[in-house]
Amino acid sequence: MDFDQDEGMMDEEFDDGSKTMSTYAPSEKFVELSEEEEARQLEMFKKREKEELEFPDELELKPGESAKKRLARYRGVKSLAGCEWDYNEDDDRKPASWNRYLKVRNYAATKNKVLKQSKNEVVIKAGQRCRVFLQVPSFILEKIINPQQKPFVLYSLLPHEHKQTVCNFTVQTWEDYDKPIKSKDSMIVQYGPRRVMIQPVFSQASRNSNNVAKFERFLHQGALSVATATVPVTFTNSPALFFKTQGDGSIEMVAQGTFMNTDVTRVIAKRVVLTGEIFKIHKSVVTVRYMFFNNEDVQEYMSIPIFTKMGRSGLIRESLGTHGYFKAAFDGKLNPQDIVGMALYKRVWPKESNSHGI
To answer: Which domain holds residue 278?
Structure first.
């Protein structure tokens, strides 16, 4: 990104008790507003922001709140699709059993190998009659209903299918279900012979080369997403059905999909957007306010790229005053009605689920 730092730059001094030299061209003096006027204009800005809903991931800081403390887990990246992210990073929110999960380097190749091996070792062909002898505890026999009234189903597991790991499902909302489905809500997934209680994390069905996907707060109607949960792995193309329990104990189907793979290297990143108002414009250089509320936060996030709703990109150049105002340079002239944003991301880990089924 190229910026013309000589054209249209401002030289401002602010009355926080000191004067700071700038490389920008001279402009009018920057004067901080009174506390009452600052609060009044901030409320007007918040009201307009709520009406316009510029960014769905917007995070609003309170006046006097430290962004550095509240967003300590977040990081700024220039591009989510091209950033480097360590999938095995140290994080106190990582599931306790993470290092014990099954790790498959190449799911497709392993799946083909397991299926080929199982076909070569099969004894009973489809359609053949056989007699099966089972030795099970008495409490299990007591639960078996007469096979003439309800089918009695037997199934076997392929190698490693008893092991817990991070699995991904394609998922879409069921056509007759129109209620919101929130990420990490408790639900039941039925895939193959398994029925497991999970709290899936939804993310975009992207295929970024760095294997980083954007977290989705809700499963959007009609859109294809990826549901990630810690469940026993399977090496078949099993359809997946998702259910939610109702107040009366019954279950309702809410979504459908397919088992994709197991992949512990896939990173799910949750985005928040800090927004600010354009206070003054001088060609491609603007003064922004209400994104931060103190000079320390401006200094902390100065190296992170910023953008506008209308597609401009820029960088923070310097802090102004003590109330979080800053000067930024963009790759073109801005519209006074535009909104400035900064995207920050943090890792979201899948929750451990009930691996014993229900």
So the answer is: 35-80+271-348
